[in-house]
């Protein structure tokens, strides 16, 4: 699977409508009242990648299996969620399980759809959610600090090490800054991640605009884009209404409809692209007559880690990776042509996986 994103936002901003459209299901009820989503809904979608189809065509693969993206539709948060208001505690816990947060912000006017905060202001809405996440993290860390402090005084080295991580994050949170703004030595990032803090997760702001603004955005989405740029976050403009319509169409109708709206591709494609970039992911392929398949690993992954994405045995018993770059695979007409042209390389355990690599792993367990 590629990665999973928790879709969060205030009630009535279009989260469930978007979720239904992106996953082409009606698993989440879309209704004009708060808390219509009582349990987090999970849906998986295939990640579109023309390279996979082209490679499969050359290899005459019987099956084509794209990598998957998982969306978790988490019920609307409100002010006070960190203190249990609305259905806050339950859904704050659900956010801890995702890789990234897709924060849906209402960037359209519609008198028929009520706004829990009384009016449209995406920057205020973003601050409401971020504040609740920071307050939840603050409470969590303050409790840990007390226990760790007692152990540290008793000479517990592990407790002292954890406090070295927790204390600068606490200082940032108390200053109204997210945990992700605190810089640590890369060697300690595993310890930071182990804290499972809500505000360490990467943010992708999704501006839900009216249909007419889907191609260009509007004044509201422009403000969100500025905020995202300042924070180093991602930002995508989508019309949930258009995505809902597109989900019902076949390929030809979809192309015509998108063209009529001034769009080159569905919002899902742009969301995936932004998500991959945000999480610093890349795609590799395995291609043969039985199947062509796409896999996802983090940028910087070594060959054994990529092998492990297929099966843990592949990583445990890794010997080598027979590797062809995607461009060479296509230019040479497939694996046989690439071998003949000397374009197949044998890479070892220190090889950094490149986006588009086509692998055949050799292993022994």
Search tags:
19% strand; flat; 365 residues; alpha/beta
Would you kindly provide a written description of the structure presented here, covering whatever features stand out?
The chain has 365 residues and is an alpha/beta fold. The chain is built from 14 helices and 12 strands. The chain has helices at 15-23, 50-59, 88-95, 122-153, 157-174, 189-194, 219-231, 240-246, 251-260, 267-279, 303-310, 312-316, 326-331, 335-340; strands at residues 4-8, 41-46, 63-65, 68-73, 100-106, 203-208, 234-238, 281-287, 291-298, 318-324, 345-347, 358-363. The model is unreliable at 25-38 (pLDDT under 50).
Specify the biggest β-sheet. Answer: 6 strands, mixed
Low-confidence stretches: 25-38
Record the strand order, biggest sheet. Answer: 2-4-1-5-6-7
Query: How many E-type strands?
Result: 12
Helix content: 40-55%
pLDDT averaged residue by residue = 86
Tally of helical runs: 14
Give the termini distance in whole angstroms: 24 Å
Our estimate of the beta-strand percent is 15-25%
Query: Which structural class should the secondary elements be placed in?
Result: alpha/beta
SSE run = EHEHEEHEHHHEHEHHHEEHHEHHEE
Coarse shape: flat
Task: Please state the CA-atom Rg, rounded to the nearest Å.
Answer: 23 Å
């Amino acid at each position: 699977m590629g990665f999973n994103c928790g879709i969060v936002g205030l009630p009535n901003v279009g989260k469930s409508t978007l979720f239904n459209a992106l996953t082409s299901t009606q698993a989440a009820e879309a209704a004009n009242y708060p808390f219509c989503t009582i349990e987090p809904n999970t849906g998986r979608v295939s990640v579109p990648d023309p390279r996979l189809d082209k490679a499969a065509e050359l290899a005459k693969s019987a099956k084509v299996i794209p990598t998957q993206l998982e969306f978790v539709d988490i019920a609307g948060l409100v002010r006070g969620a960190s203190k249990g208001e609305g259905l806050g505690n339950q859904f704050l816990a659900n956010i801890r399980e995702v890789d990234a947060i897709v924060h849906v912000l209402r960037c359209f006017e519609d008198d028929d759809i009520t706004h829990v905060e009384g009016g449209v202001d995406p920057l205020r809405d973003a601050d409401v959610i971020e504040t609740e996440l920071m307050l939840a993290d603050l409470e969590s860390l303050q409790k840990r600090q007390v226990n760790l402090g007692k152990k540290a005084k008793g000479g517990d080295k592990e407790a002292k090490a954890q406090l070295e991580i927790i204390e600068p994050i606490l200082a940032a949170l108390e200053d109204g800054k997210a945990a992700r703004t605190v810089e640590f030595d890369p060697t300690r990032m595993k310890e930071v991640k182990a804290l499972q803090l809500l505000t360490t997760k990467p943010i992708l702001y999704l501006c839900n605009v009216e249909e007419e603004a889907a191609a260009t955005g509007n004044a509201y989405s422009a403000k969100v884009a500025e905020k995202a740029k300042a924070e180093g976050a991602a930002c995508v403009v989508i019309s949930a209404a258009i995505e809902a319509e597109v989900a019902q169409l076949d390929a030809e109708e979809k192309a015509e409809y998108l063209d009529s709206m001034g769009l080159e591709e569905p919002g899902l494609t742009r969301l995936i692209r932004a998500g991959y970039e945000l999480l610093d992911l890349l795609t590799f392929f395995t291609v043969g007559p039985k199947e062509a398949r796409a896999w996802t690993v983090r940028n910087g992954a070594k060959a054994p880690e990529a092998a492990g994405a297929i099966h843990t045995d592949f990583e445990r018993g890794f010997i080598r990776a027979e590797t062809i770059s995607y461009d060479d695979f296509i230019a040479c007409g497939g694996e046989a042509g690439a071998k003949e042209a000397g374009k197949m390389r044998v890479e070892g355990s220190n090889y950094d996986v490149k986006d588009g690599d086509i692998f055949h792993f050799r292993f022994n367990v």
